[in-house]
Amino acid sequence: MTPFVDRYLDMVRDQRLPHLIPLTLVKRQLLLRALANAPKPTSIAVSLTIDVETDDGHAYNGYNAPSVAPFLEHIGQLADQVNGGFTLFVQGDLAVPYAEPLRQLAPNHEIGLHGWHHELWGKPIWYSKITEQIPLDEKARRLQLAFDAFATAGLARPTSFRAPWLRIDDNVLHLLDQQGFVLDSSVFVARGAKPVIQQFGHLTRIPVSASPVPRLVRRSGIPVFTPYIALNMPTFLTASDENLLTLVGEIVTYQASVGCPPHLVILSHPWEYEPVAPRFAYQFDVYQRLAERFDWLATHYKTMLLPLSKLVV
Question: Which CATH number fits domain 3-312: 3.60.10.10, 1.10.287.600, 3.20.20.370, 3.20.20.300?
Answer without folding.
Answer: 3.20.20.370
